[in-house]
Amino acid sequence: MEFTITREHLLKQIQPVAGVSDKKKTLAVLANILIVVENSRLSLIGSDLEIELIMMSQLEGDFIAGEVTTPADKLLDICRNLPETSLISFKLDDDKLTVRSGGSRFSLSTLPAADFPTIQGSSPKITINLPQNQFKQLIYGSQFAMAQQDVRYYLNGMLFEADRESLRMIATDGHRLAVTHSKQHAAGDAHGDFHIILPRKAISELYRLLQDEDMALQIGLDDNHIRITGAGFVFIAKLIDGRFPDYKRVLPQGGERIIEVDRDLLKQGLSRAAILSSEKHRGVRLQLEPGWMRIIANNPEQEEAEEVLELDYKGDNFEIGFNASYLLDVLNTVPPGGVKLTLQDANCSALIESQVETASLKSVYVVMPLRL
Amino acid sequence: MQANKKWPRAILLMDLNAFFASVEQRDFPELRGKPVAITNGDQGSAMITCSYEARKFGLKTGMRLWEARKRCPDLIVQPSRHKAYSAASKVVMQALQKVTPDIEIFSVDEAFLDVTNCQSLHGTPEKMARMVKDIIFEVSGLLCSVGVSGDKTTAKYAAGVQKPDGLTVILPWEAEKRLQEVPVTQLCGIGPKVGQFLANYGVLRCKDMKNIPMNVLSKRYGNMGRRIWLMCQGKDPEPVCTKIEDPKSVGHGKVLPPGTRNEKIILNYFFRMSDMVAERMRKYGMRAQSYHISYLSEAGRSGGKYRLVVPEHDGQHIFHLCRYMLDHHWSGEVVKQIQVTAIDPQPGDTQIDLFAAPDEKREKLHTVVDQVNKRFGDSRKIGPGMLQKKY
Predict the structure, then answer these.
(1) Interchain CB contact of A164 with B (< 8 Å)
(2) Which residue segment(s) compose the domain that B209 sits in?
């Protein structure tokens, strides 16, 4: 195997692949990336058995076909530390991979390509086509609400579902919920209903991989896998086998106390007040009066913060507590402009929506309060 | 007038002598001057403490009763009355406020007092130590030993020098010299494990500590290591901590009757421990998500760490974890002891969950059970599970 490539070109390919490869070294070969050269095409493949990412690019100049695996992190570090715009050549001699660039030479250890496990999905039952940026926005709208290492393992990921009307991404950690859905169907695609759960790591790697551009993306689903094919990459992930909770049941219906406020005004007020909230729950009290909101935070050191905001509220005098981080996560995700909070009472969930009309997507957020 | 003689720091450690036994001797005059052993309730088979008269026979905390009786045939065994002890402790700790507000209640029968700022008010630290002894005797009729020095570790060491009814002053500037020949493991905070670590570096007595650099300890034990290095030289920097911190874990264990291998009985004990842990958390207003659940058998300790879906303080749910543990680890062997510990309990039922609606009936049940138990004593007459059938 032999080929030459520019540093920038290679770096762009290696970074996402190295992100996927398994640093916990459950299997030695998974800490490696698989390099395949054939038909003037270079493929770099990383896997942790749950997720597999294949990055493909066209090679320029001479090459000798072949395949091998080599440590992902070391190769990435070498690539990063070489000077910009340098040309890097690779050559496999027996079981050593020699990397040269200018006056630098590295001899890396390898493991045979045949040892590298690839995920064998069956042929997809459902195929969806939609623009890359739209899929990325679907993820963006909900991803912050995913659980982390929850015993309810199915919450450590994101529910991706579709029906006749829309595509939806739903995430929750039991304290807050995010639902992002497309307003109309992409490209009039005909596909059946489905509900799948994508694991947390797949979501974060995918989000980094996807671009904010209107490029084509094909999503294929079989019973256990999702296979996402875009320009220059194929991303495969095992799905989480579990029952996502019935999120529709916890979407609040109605609610008489409605607050309308500028996103940044509320965000800044909350951020400042939260400085003096307790570290554990980051609790803040929202005291509402017609036309006003007072945000109050206390901590165990008996320090106190108070923020008074002028906003649109016509209901009665009312008090409710929240984890400020949960509210801020929502406010950091919605677009700048007006937001609407709908509250029922102090022990019921709050509904938060952006008032900014967007072309293709809409998100709704539910946050459970803290008991005061 | 003697302003130049003020100590830069003055710390007192008050230690109530043979506390539980002394309370018994105080409340039952017929026990005075006699060897008395205290057992855990009516069923305890080991001594949890004994009077000084009994200690003369070589009796020690934790000794089995039959062994104690062999050594001291006239031994009087009294079941413990924890309510009386905590009442006495409360009276003592409150009375100490007359000396200084800077008090750290170190245990039920020990307290540190930072009297640095009281020297102009009350006089020398030694005078304040006498004051402490007088006040305690006045309000409770109990004797105590007091250690006086310039730091917590030396004060604690000093309190142990003369017992019972002692008063030992170690001048702060003589602390290092006084500790020189003391084995490091005699200092409070240096257990057998740290002791072994230090022994590997040739540090057996406090004076040896100077021979190793501080970073040997700080690398291994962090800030605690730095403290250990300093405290062996009479320079323990630890302040008297007046704030009561939240418990880091809440646990209960129980030694089972010899030869227990009946699953129903074992589960019953786990049930009671789960209830006790849950009740204590409710008392503190805390909940925990993770629990260490284990049992001791001939082969050693088995069990592990188990998690609930959300943080809770419900004995029933903790008990489910116990049953799960037993199903996975236990294969019919004799169980000697069981242990249920809640890890990192957190304040509160504050964050409401989206999917797990709070069970108001159970909350009410818990409140009632806690009230009943509070009123009818500590022998644990009921648990929520026993009442549940009515719901």
Answers:
(1) no
(2) 180-242
The verdict on A244 and A258 lying in the same domain is no
Higher pLDDT, B246 or A259: A259
Angle between helices B223-231 and B214-221 (to 10 degrees): 140
Residue A312 in tokens = 């649109």
Give the mean pLDDT of B156-163. 92
- For residue A39, what are the domain limits? 2-115
Residue B155 and residue B161 in contact, taking contact as beta carbons nearer than 8 Å: no
Residues 267 through 306 of chain A touching chain B, CB cutoff 8 Å: 280-281, 283
Residue B225: HSE in the Cβ half-sphere, 13 Å Cα cutoff: 14
pLDDT value for B389: 38
Give the nearest chain A residue to B356 (CA atoms): A174
Count of structural domains within chain A: 3
Q: Is the CB of residue A322 less than 8 Å from the CB of residue A331?
A: no
pLDDT tens for A40-95 read 999 999 999 999 999 999 998 899 999 999 999 999 999 999 999 999 999 999 89
Q: Lowest-confidence range among B187-191, B242-246, B372-376?
A: B242-246
Q: For residue A120, is it within any domain? A: no
Question: Are B266 and B357 in the same domain?
Answer: yes
> Among candidates A178, A168, A114, which has minimal Cα distance to A146?
A178
Whether A238 and A263 share a structural domain: no
Instruction: List beta partners, residue B307.
Output: B290
Contacts of A152 (CB under 8 A, 6+ apart): A174, B309
CATH of the domain at A299: 3.10.150.10
Q: Which of B104, B110, B176, B279 is catalytic?
A: B110
Domain-embedded: residue A317? yes
Q: How confident is the model at residue A361 (pLDDT cuts 50, 70, 90)?
A: confident
- Residue B306 resides in a domain: yes
Among B12-21, B172-181, B246-255, the minimum mean pLDDT is found in: B246-255
Shared domain for B35 and B157, answered yes or no, is yes
Cβ-contact B310, B359 below 8 angstroms:
no
